[in-house]
């Protein structure tokens, strides 16, 4: 008889708190009250405290004087650096994967893109981000360079710890991103030159970075005008 492994109390607390941070329910700067979390998770304070220490090691939680444990504030520099690296890695991996990409999987790429459109219609940024990640994950699934795949996974995990959920996205950029996805699907379907696919994928990722920087500049000017 096959038995399923049930996470212990610390693992459970870790999984719950981590998921709430990554999906935006606990935004950057959110204070974590150990006793309150223990009551919510029906456990003692000890497993919650141990989970928080583990999340601190993951850089998802920081300790602030007089405040205690808080969700790590948005690290803009780390976000920009990580996204830039991801653009290079995913560009190369997608190009290599495109050579082996099965045509029957193209419909999955179109489905993810349609789901992104649906998420944008209701301004569900978290859902949009999840489908976007799954789209790109599929585009480079058939890359045969396993070390490269491991580096992409590690970079995505780092991005999750530094990004500011939702606020790094703008609806206008999200709409253009969807259009670029359809372009990429067409390029893969036509088996276009892998170098061209690599360049397009890299630029696609960098366009998100540029949109973030442009929005930051606009917000800074608006703030100055209100002073």
TrEMBL record:
- Check the record and name the PROSITE patterns matching this protein: HTH_GNTR (PS50949)
An example of a Pfam family matching this protein is: GntR
The molecule here is called DNA-binding GntR family transcriptional regulator
Domain HTH gntR-type intervals: 7-74
Which InterPro entries does UniProt cross-reference here? Answer: GntR_C, TF_FadR/GntR_C, Tscrpt_reg_HTH_GntR, WH-like_DNA-bd_sf, WH_DNA-bd_sf
GO terms assigned for molecular function? DNA binding
Arranged from A to Z, the UniProt key words for this protein are: DNA-binding, Transcription, Transcription regulation
Q: Does the keyword Transcription regulation apply?
A: yes
Transcription found in the keyword field: yes
